[in-house]
């Protein structure tokens, strides 16, 4: 790990003491979001030190021109950039006309941040002495409302300590913001209208090219020692900014507070010309409740989320803090309310990666949402891809495929491919497999087969057609091969016969074929409708099956393992343990060509296949592959340690499983990858959740039955989690003495525990030891 | 071929008739250059139609910021861009105050361009009727002086036909030019000083970042019907431009002529603060001779070049025109006078590719210059790489190599890597092999071994060290493999065991080892000096040899051929002939991933190895490989058809050899690759020369003896060429009746003709039939 300043706490993320070096890191870690918007933990007052400003609106993006030396056919036309949105949290503060700026104060003491995950708020307090020797106490608390998700609220207070002082608050809106990450240093926003009315202000701005219109708004209230204060609202306006000016003489130990309500109304939810009206309504809803009631509602809303999603860990505060941080951030990013949205790799905490949707959603996030929310949430995520099927077919056509073959994008906002990374992303066609797998995974877990005849089958057919066309018959091997791909391990590029890709391609075809038969037999009218649309003949299905049944898989008989790709054994097979530690992380120390020819694996690749298809292999086979590949895995992708943690637990390598668990759960808190400043790794947080539920808990579905093989790290006293399985809510509590199962909702349920059938009945706590 | 408007002519490139669609193509084809500068055939007068303006100064470049999605270690820091230089040819013309602009005239008749290759000038004539109904005849002739290579001259005349007219000439200098090709739309030049003095004007400008200072200058003279005319010189100046204004009332059939002398003086040849003085001196030298004498000198200088370099072809005007166009353009680009310069892929005819030096120099250009010039020219080209050895070692260090391993850049201006094409160029390490091969080729041909102890051995040691470190021992194969490369065929990327690369790597090590022994024995003091510097032990050499002697070569026993790379036979081996012609060229019709997994070969790859090392293989082996690879070769690189032409001739496939010869020699004239607008393919023109001398002429060196196996296409009556072999100038004349050898310079020479020894003596024409 590379940092260690976050205070261990079961429910909060806490920083104590002011360190300018940690500001950008903490801005990421203390980020808040409510599914509709989010923001980095930037200071409200001015700050001239190093900072990374960020405020984001879900679904609002900019199609940045891509950067490439020489364009080639098939490259995406744009890179969808997560947009830094207009700022509404800003409050410029002056104390006797000196600007409050923590980078310029004489002293900063008792600086403390807390992100209270249980209740969903962020607080910052400090005492500071300005250059003018005025000493003040500052407290700021803010949250983004889960209930009224267009609104956030801030309570910002200053108390002079050693002298009276003229305190000026200049709350402002600023639409003149820029992205840190821009390919061509362009501006993304254009201001359309600025308006003030009483203690309310509005800026309507639109994104260039994508033409998203958003109204950024604010309303202010003032109090002095808890009593409402009515000062005149002086307004100043610039071309992209509007500010209110309030000035108050404050005595020592009096507290001058400004409440600022703000947020966004966006054209995806309102008419473009009604954004200010919508903003007024949102403000009316929020301010009529007031800060305290809004906050109380916030606590209750989060309590509801935690009720289902919480995982407790006893006897290991850092592990407990880690898992809650992961669950909290996932829920801050995506709540499943809006089926047009998805889960971006950095959520609302940074700009990196762009796009909102990667294969991460299907491979990592769906299990989390499927298990901790109503199954409709996971269904929405599946439907998101169904809605993009036409675009996936167009994308495949651009690359030379036909007949309805679908290639889903690696990175997308609206179904179009929009990545920015030719050398890696371009050939990662394996993503298509995860999208089909998620359909399988969803129906397996929820038992809701209806998704397949309604929507899923069309997706599966498009994907099967793609794999069929993408495979090449090798006369030399007398098998079908898949040439020129990049597997999940992005430290390889343009390899032949990546085992994971070939395996999932074969599986996709078989899965499609099986379901075509099933739908034909059981959902005749859906079958008719679909066949009308896709024009699929038995002959075509046979040609798919010819490919699937004759797929080539690289294998080493010597090692008894499938090979990650053709030629893997030609590499210089020095294990990571034998690599000079000064060479790590290799993505920062080594040239790209050296990484490519090395055996080092960025993230689970062959093992990702063993994770998805564990029941296709024996535990001995899993162990063989784990023991072969783990020593070459550098885990320089956030998506890697969780899979290894799950498999290590399965293989009873509990110390390893625990180490990987810490690495995945505290990846950002302890900054393992030296990049937390850029934002959090949101999607891999679902992997953390899996590493407990599927790893230590050993949760699987076996023949329609929920099964567990509970294990517990010796470092813990116990842990518990809940799952929503086919409308049963089951709480699992694991200790060294045994495991208890409690059915909180639903009818009698038969589960498997370590292979033994156990009946769980409402109100009847079952203990297995 | 894609165009057919160039008139066949033995000595000139001729266009007749005005077609706005062909302007950009002709601007490339009629380009002129003198080794020190060059320019596209842009019109002197204004032109509002589609045009690609270009004027270039040898060795002046701009380090453009590279464009890449996400940066990776080892990527070049900049892309050296060929710079469009300030324009000195411009003459704005008005006729009765109407601007002369061929895009706006009522009629353009008798439009004709001629590039006279024999004499080295470019002429354009036309008759036009303006919107004001004035009809005029215009004639413009210009050339860039070979003798005074900082100067060019233009004679521009207008004769009114149907009426008298006020003709205004506004000759100007313009430093406000931009590149068409810029990664970030930046300006590259900054104007420092503008100065007029009498009929002379000067603009000193410097390139941003690289700080090249150049003075662009002009001087004018006027004549009316051949009589000097002294009009007042009115001057107008803008921030980056200066113009003279001359106005004259001209009667019908009177000719009003402006002579414009212009060019560049550059800080690489003069002190920065003496550029204007140097320009004045250059102008003085030129104008004291006057246009006609300068032109006479130009004819004589070109006659001298042709005397040695010409290749005649009888009975096939298009073939004759093609080869002369290639020889002419090569000599316009590089004359071997300045050892700091090299041969850019587009010479002075366009901006594409950037950089001045590719492996093209060693693989294609050196044989041409070595054979048609004094051997010092080829030695200069070799020394260019010796001068860059330290940079090549630094470049290798950036990629993780050590101990003096040298990796030469794929694209360079000053020894630093500066390419712009990650997906292809990054792994083309085979370039290192061509650089060593050129040393071998030079010593083999010239007999000048002294280059090796003086400079070449150090280069060879650096290269051998690179290959030794770059190879990986594969336990699985019990051989050394070279992983993750791109061979000469740029339609593959990141392949393992590219046969060409592995073969040349092995050869480089053996060649270095042999020469270390030879220098040790025969050049003891050089050996001592070198060993002092490179610290090379016998043990290290042994470890090199271990790699060389155990190198792995992919091979198919079934086909009896070496495989281009591991896994080549897994591809869908449909020959180019069976490919739908609508899919061609695949680099314009197919997506990049589809190209990568196809079997199609952009340019000779395995066959490039057979070209370099022909004497390592039997003719039967060559034929087997030619027959295997040629059917998959799409020749979408300009460097491809020449090699296939040479090998087809060797294999007596004369029709094929002839077709490839036309394709290489008329690549630009007939625009085979649909891109001549962007500039000419200069370096491949040396390949055209090789396809006659080495292809049809069958010239080789066998055991220090010059040998020929002459063949003649049935389409030709005869052809002749000259070679400078070890200070013998030998003229070879091939007809269907036999071949004559004439020694124009040098002592008695024994050569091999079709394997039979033939003695050639001065003044004794030897005929072999």
Automatic annotation (TrEMBL), chains A, B:
EC number: 2.4.1.8
Residues at the active site: 490
Keywords: Glycosyltransferase, Transferase
Domain Glycoside hydrolase family 65 N-terminal: 14-265
SUPFAM superfamilies: Galactose mutarotase-like (SSF74650), Six-hairpin glycosidases (SSF48208)
Residues engaged in binding substrate: 359-360, 602-603
Top-rank lineage group of the source organism: Bacteria
Domain Glycoside hydrolase family 65 central catalytic: 324-690
A biological process term (GO) from this entry: carbohydrate metabolic process
Gene3D superfamilies, sorted: 1.50.10.10, Glycoside hydrolase, family 65, N-terminal domain, Maltose phosphorylase, domain 3
Annotated GO MF terms: carbohydrate binding; hydrolase activity, hydrolyzing O-glycosyl compounds; maltose phosphorylase activity
InterPro entries: 6-hairpin_glycosidase_sf, 6hp_glycosidase-like_sf, Gal_mutarotase_sf_dom, GH65_N, Glyco_hydro_65_C, Glyco_hydro_65_M, Glyco_hydro_65_N, Malt_Pase/Glycosyl_Hdrlase
Ranges of residues in domain Glycoside hydrolase family 65 C-terminal: 699-759
Family as reported in the entry's similarity comment: Belongs to the glycosyl hydrolase 65 family.
NCBIfam families (UniProt xref): PRK13807.1
Protein name: Maltose phosphorylase
Taxonomic source organism: Kordia antarctica
């Amino acid at each position: 790990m590379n940092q260690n300043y976050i205070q261990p706490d079961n429910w909060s993320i806490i920083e104590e003491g002011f360190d300018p070096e940690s500001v950008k890191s903490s801005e990421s870690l203390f980020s808040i979001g409510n599914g509709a918007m989010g923001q980095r933990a930037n200071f409200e007052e001015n700050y001239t030190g190093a900072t990374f400003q960020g405020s984001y609106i879900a679904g609002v993006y900019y199609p940045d021109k891509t950067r490439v030396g020489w364009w080639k056919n098939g490259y995406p036309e744009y890179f969808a950039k997560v947009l830094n949105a207009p700022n509404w949290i800003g409050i410029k503060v002056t104390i006797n006309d000196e600007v409050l700026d923590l980078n310029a104060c004489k002293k900063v003491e008792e600086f403390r941040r807390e992100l209270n995950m249980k209740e969903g708020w962020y607080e910052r307090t400090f005492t500071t002495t300005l250059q003018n020797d005025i000493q003040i106490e500052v407290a700021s608390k803010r949250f983004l409302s889960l209930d009224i998700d267009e609104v956030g609220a801030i309570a910002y207070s200053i108390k002079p300590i050693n002298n009276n002082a003229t305190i000026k608050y200049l709350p402002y809106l600023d639409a003149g913001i820029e992205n840190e990450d821009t390919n061509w240093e362009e501006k993304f926003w254009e201001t359309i209208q600025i308006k003030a009315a009483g203690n309310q202000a509005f800026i309507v701005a639109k994104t260039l090219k994508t033409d998203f219109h958003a109204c950024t708004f604010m309303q202010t209230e003032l109090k002095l020692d808890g009593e409402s204060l009515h000062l005149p609202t002086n307004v100043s306006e610039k071309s992209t900014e509007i500010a209110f000016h309030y000035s108050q003489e404050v005595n020592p130990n009096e507290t001058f507070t400004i409440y600022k309500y703000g947020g966004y109304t966006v054209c995806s939810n309102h008419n473009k010309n009604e954004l200010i009206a919508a903003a007024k309504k949102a403000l009316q809803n929020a301010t009529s409740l007031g800060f305290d009631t809004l906050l109380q509602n916030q606590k209750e809303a989060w309590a509801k989320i935690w009720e289902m999603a919480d995982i407790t860990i006893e006897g290991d505060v850092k592990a407990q803090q880690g898992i809650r941080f992961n669950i909290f951030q996932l829920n801050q990013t995506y709540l499943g309310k809006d089926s047009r949205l998805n889960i971006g790799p950095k959520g609302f905490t940074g700009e990196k990666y762009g796009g909102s949707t990667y294969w991460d959603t299907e491979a990592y996030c769906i299990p989390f949402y499927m298990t901790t929310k109503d199954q409709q949430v996971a269904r929405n995520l599946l439907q998101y891809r169904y809605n993009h099927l036409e675009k996936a077919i167009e994308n495949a056509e651009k690359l030379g495929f036909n007949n309805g073959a679908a290639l889903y994008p690696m990175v997308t906002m609206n179904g179009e491919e929009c990545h920015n990374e030719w050398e890696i992303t371009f050939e990662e066609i394996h993503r298509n497999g995860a999208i089909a797998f998620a359909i399988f995974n969803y129906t397996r877990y929820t038992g809701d087969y209806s998704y397949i005849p309604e929507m899923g089958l069309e997706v599966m057919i498009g994907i099967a057609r793609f794999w069929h066309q993408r495979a090449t018959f090798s006369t030399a091997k007398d098998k079908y091969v898949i040439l020129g791909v990049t597997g999940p391990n992005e430290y390889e590029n343009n390899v032949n016969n990546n085992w994971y890709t070939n395996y999932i391609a074969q599986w996709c075809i078989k899965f499609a074929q099986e379901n075509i038969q099933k739908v034909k037999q059981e959902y005749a009218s859906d079958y008719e409708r679909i066949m009308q649309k896709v024009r699929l003949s038995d002959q075509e299905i046979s040609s798919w099956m010819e490919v699937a049944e004759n797929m080539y898989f690289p294998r080493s008989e010597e090692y008894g393992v499938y090979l990650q790709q053709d030629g893997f054994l030609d590499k210089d097979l020095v294990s990571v343990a034998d690599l000079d530690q000064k060479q790590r992380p290799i993505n920062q120390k080594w040239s790209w060509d050296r990484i490519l020819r090395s055996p080092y694996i960025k993230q689970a690749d062959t093992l990702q296949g063993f994770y998805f298809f564990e029941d296709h292999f024996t535990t001995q086979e899993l162990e063989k592959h784990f023991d072969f590949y783990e020593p070459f895995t550098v885990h320089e992708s956030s998506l890697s340690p969780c899979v290894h943690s799950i498999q290590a637990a399965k293989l009873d390598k509990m110390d390893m499983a625990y180490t990987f668990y810490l690495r995945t759960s505290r990846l950002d808190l302890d900054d393992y990858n030296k990049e937390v400043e850029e934002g959090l790794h949101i999607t891999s947080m679902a992997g953390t959740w899996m590493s407990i539920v599927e790893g230590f808990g050993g949760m699987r579905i076996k023949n329609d039955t929920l099964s567990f093989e509970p294990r517990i790290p010796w470092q813990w006293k116990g842990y518990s989690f809940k799952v929503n399985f086919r409308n049963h809510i089951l709480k699992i509590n694991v200790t060294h003495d045994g495991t208890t199962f409690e059915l909180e909702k639903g009818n009698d349920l038969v589960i498997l525990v370590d292979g033994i059938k156990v009946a769980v009945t409402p109100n009847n706590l079952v203990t297995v030891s």
